[in-house]
Write a structure and sequence with these properties.
five-stranded antiparallel beta sheet, two-stranded antiparallel sheet, 9 strands, about 10% helix
Length: about 110
């Protein structure tokens, strides 16, 4: 990966995606969700209908159907986030859902 004629990072696509060296590389290869100044891949976030493992409570604002997942807009405290529901939970706007944001990208 190059930026302004300088090498930012070298490696295989999977490595660049999962272990980006910096924000430029992370955002070049996919979405990066920012929570408390740390970046996460939306597809690594787990969504539950009930609270498990001290997950964060969020209110469901919108559901957008996609081929392989539902794109959920949620409100966590005062922050609006977009997360992916690959299990297509039976959810309604206004429901509370719980998210486990997992491990942040190391950048």
């Amino acid at each position: 990966v190059m930026k302004k004629a300088e090498i930012e990072q070298q490696g295989y696509l999977r490595e660049l995606y999962n272990m980006p060296k910096n924000s430029y590389v992370a955002e070049l290869f996919g979405e990066a969700l920012i929570v408390n100044d740390k970046k996460y891949r939306p597809e690594n976030i787990k969504i539950y209908k009930t609270n498990t493992n001290d997950a964060l409570q969020c209110m469901l604002l919108n559901v957008k159907f996609n081929k392989c997942y539902n794109e959920l807009s949620v409100l966590m405290y005062d922050t609006k986030l977009v997360v992916y529901d690959y299990h297509r939970l039976n959810l309604n706007i206004g429901d509370y859902v719980y998210i486990d944001i997992g491990v942040p990208l190391n950048i």
